[in-house]
Inverse folding.
């Protein structure tokens, strides 16, 4: 019989609670810890069930489910991508996710993941750069100064000590917003008026634009020797940011090749073009950066395991800090086979009331 | 800019609210309306995005995601199946689901679906039987008297006028529970002590047992001419209920062949064994029952479109009856590109408080 009185309950982290949790932990520590959790999971990559995300495409955008499991925990994220959403005040990307116990299939956590995805994307980028950028890197260009840009800046500062930023966006007000938001944190910030200007002297180039189309945000002549490119914005079929010529000069690192071939920058390349799996760099099975002149490219599209890491990190954090409510999500009849009887008892209670 | 002040909010139907909603509408009407919604969606089957469910199997059970879309709405269900769960007071199957707007990707409804799945499974079975059972059917055997059994009985009474039940379960206490729960509703109920006894004179045989293994709940000699078999319990790889010989004597109707080949009774048959798609019977493209002696079999595994129908039915019902709360699930910054700024403003508010 049911011994736990709260089998029906799933902890829920709302947007408000997520913000308070992140602030309570501290943005820098949250990013650093989350990056460590992601790295931990990348290092045990082979234990995960992996599948390319399950996407439902429409004219306006895409809705995706991203499940994975390590055999003990199961996680999935729901995420949409609708570039035109900002026109009526909505987010381009919103997300929520669930962590479950593989042993009984019960959800253990339901959480907003719009903010959490921004954090995990930035943390993943910074982890990758830790292995791929030149060790003395200090300066990062950020092309595209939208919702993800500040998170990238914070993660690269926390993990790599990047403290010089060169910002560019086709919309100068986005650049101003990004610079304003990052003021007072110890960054030296240059607001640039062209991609050319932004990439000048940058050790790392982060591209994080949002248009759903083949675009060449970065051209071949923008990328000098030794640069690490952190390509974040190209993340669905038909959406790329880099000129193909850059790809041909770079060593390309990816999360999960079957998904990146469909969604990443490398959709521009033949399917047999060699790529390196990031997790193998972390375990030492493959080399990351080999020389100061090498161009490294992290073709980031976002993979389910990163969300899994974020979910389990949040689960641990709410155990320590609270910041959740309890949702009556799961039917919990007194006798498990008597789901219908639960309905009858509810009826009697309502009649008595 | 954001004109709707509540873009962050998603209506949430808890287990408690679902029970109250079902009781407010009335179980019979809920089942009948839901069946009509399912039939409506089956009749427009070709418009749906269809994919076999995305399953994550483990030793203990399975966790599945079941997405679909009609191009305007998108729905998915999370559902687990863990046969041993009842040992520690948990449900074998729990579920929740989400309905979203394809146009902007925003969730419009989050709801418990443990109870709702029980209702939609029963409603689907009854819709299928409406086309496949003999028109004069009055008597149904129910083999397996667990959580789904009463819902099946109620749906078959509401939709087809089935008012004679013959119940059997290897656990006699389950049969007693089922009979007790269904008392006073106009059923004539026979509690049987064997499958042989239960199927005697039955026009319809419903099998709805829960063991995750190849089992032969129903043998060939149990099934006489003219019977309609409603096989509900076999619904994952390695889990079947019927003897293969029965399948070979039956005309087999299925929801979505690529999924049923993996999960249904027909996993016992070669991949080329002919099956009939239920939706085509509903649209009149194919005949259902052709003669009084024919054995018809609905090899039900549960398909995403049925959950989609249930989600849109619930969405309409809560618009009329309420029975939901509002979840702060989606980040809604004042300026869509300023997700990070939302965090900063939250910080300022907390500091001021």
């Amino acid at each position: 019989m049911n011994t736990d009185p709260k089998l029906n309950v799933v902890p829920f982290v709302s947007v408000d609670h997520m913000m308070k949790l992140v602030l309570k932990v501290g943005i820098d520590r949250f990013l650093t810890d989350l990056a460590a959790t992601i790295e931990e999971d990348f290092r045990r990559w082979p234990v995960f069930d992996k599948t390319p995300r399950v996407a439902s495409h429409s004219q306006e955008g895409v809705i995706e489910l991203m499940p994975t499991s390590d055999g003990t925990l199961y996680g999935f994220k729901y995420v949409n991508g609708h570039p035109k959403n900002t026109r009526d005040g909505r987010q381009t990307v919103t997300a929520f996710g669930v962590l479950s116990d593989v042993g009984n299939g019960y959800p253990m956590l339901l959480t907003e993941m719009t903010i959490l995805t921004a954090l995990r994307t930035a943390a993943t980028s910074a982890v990758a750069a830790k292995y791929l950028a030149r060790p003395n890197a200090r300066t990062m260009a950020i092309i595209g100064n939208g919702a993800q840009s500040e998170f990238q800046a914070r993660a690269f500062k926390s993990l790599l000590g990047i403290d010089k930023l060169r910002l560019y966006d086709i919309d100068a007000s986005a650049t101003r917003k990004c610079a304003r938001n990052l003021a007072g944190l110890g960054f030296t910030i240059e607001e640039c008026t062209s991609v050319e200007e932004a990439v000048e002297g940058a050790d790392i180039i982060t591209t994080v634009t949002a248009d759903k189309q083949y675009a060449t945000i970065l051209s071949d002549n923008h990328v000098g020797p030794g640069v690490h490119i952190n390509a974040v914005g190209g993340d669905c079929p038909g959406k790329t940011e880099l000129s193909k010529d850059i790809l041909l000069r770079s060593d390309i690192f990816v999360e999960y090749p079957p998904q990146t071939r469909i969604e990443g920058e490398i959709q521009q390349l033949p399917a047999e073009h060699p790529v390196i799996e990031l997790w193998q760099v972390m375990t030492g099975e493959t080399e990351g950066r080999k020389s100061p002149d090498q161009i490294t490219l992290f073709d980031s599209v976002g993979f389910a395991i990163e969300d899994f890491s974020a979910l389990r990190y949040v689960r641990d954090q709410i155990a320590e800090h609270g910041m959740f409510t309890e949702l009556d999500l799961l039917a919990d009849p007194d006798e498990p086979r008597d789901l219908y009887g639960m309905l009858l008892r509810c009826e009697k209670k309502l009649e008595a009331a």
Chain B has a mean pLDDT of 93.
